[in-house]
Amino acid sequence: MTTDLTRATAAELADLLGAGSVSSREVTRALLDRTAAVDGAVRSYLHVDEDGALAAADDVDRRRAAGEELHALAGVPIAVKDVMATRGLPTTCGSRILEGWVPPYDATVVRRLREAGMPILGKTNMDEFAMGSSTEHSAFGPSHNPWDLDRIPGGSGGGSSSVVASFQAPLAIGTDTGGSIRQPAAVTGTVGTKPTYGGVSRYGLVALASSLDQAGPCSRTVLDSALLHEVIAGHDPMDSTSVDAPVPAVVEAARRADVSGMRIGIVRELTGEGFQPGVQARFDEAVQHLVDAGAEVVEVSCPSFTYALAAYYLILPSEASSNLAKFDAMRYGLRVTPDGIDAPSAEQVMAATRDAGFGDEVKRRIILGTYALSSGYYDAYYGSAQKVRRLIADDFAAAFETADVLVTPTAPTTAFRLGDKLDDPMAMYLNDIATIPANLAGIPGLSLPSGLADEDGLPAGFQVLAPAMADERLYSVGAALEARLAAAWGGPLLDRAPDLTEVSR
Does 3.90.1300.10 match the CATH number of domain 10-258+445-498? Predict the structure, then answer.
């Protein structure tokens, strides 16, 4: 076990805290000091709540000293993506239109973190309203990849992935609408899980696309993701889409890490052509590790996946255009009065506010979604996309008759340079080609690091997909592969990342 508290895993910190070897204040202080040292270069956070985090840590320490029975993760600090409502803390969604808004309530996920006694370190950066794959669409500037500060940390949750990869937090909350937990995990060498749709409450999550959004864990190990998954999951009557069923046994599965006799399905449409050679090579090696661990590999075909990207970029903008209509300058957030008009109408104020408050990508998707939903085009575009969505779900169902889990590379490439795809929306959208199908079907997915690509020495990701509410399978496969890869590497992949303390000086 490491003696550096910032590099300890959440499971290790939980053991130290439970044994009384360290206090939550010491852990929290160490992480805040780390943030002060490196976040000027990484820019993971939009808001750091030093006083609140230390107060929460002190409360846990008092309760533990009094002999109170606490949650296993009590005292382990965490960062939260700035799309989750946090009482008393700013929630901006990476947008000027919500700059300065402080919610009067907590999202259910945040409430469950507080109830577990986990100090919240701050709110992490993101593409505006979760629209993007790089954090370059954040109104407050991009986050940076700790492996190479000139490269993207993924998106939309690049703040959550980079805060974990740069050892500023052992855990973070992300959200995944089309891959925004898994793709950032892939390019930063971390672990990210999208639970089954409805498995984690969406109450208090500022909606992008209501039928696709799902909150989930970001971590450095598969076990840590399972531990956090267990905290935030479960039925919530405040969310009409919440699944009223027991939480899958994810922690038990992660600790067992057994794939013997498991059928691993390789998706023919999501490998090979179009994937960076180094990413594909690491994927192939990871599959062989699973075979060596006793798994059986089968090939499956999901032909409708070819249309997933097109369907997604009709469904998501359509739902986004509806969800973002609430930002009208009348109730909360930014209000801009148009120049040269003495007594502007509500419509004129709304137009001026949305023009000033929304960035280019948000405007692009609102326009696309509004068009797709307009009279005369609804059936041709949105309706057709929903039919493709059904076909994708059917392809998954057929594949899971042959395989217990499906595996793919998480993203087609390693992290690209900041600015390389900013002016090419289609090139940016293609980063989610392997992750989008899971969101369209509502099934769970997990990404873990598969190694460093030969071309650039940057992390590649390995994705595991399971049937709905069979999230525990993700953790069995992920933990088994993680153990074998760490043994081959001689330790965690993040041990090879640059020393950011030197870079930040």
Answer: yes
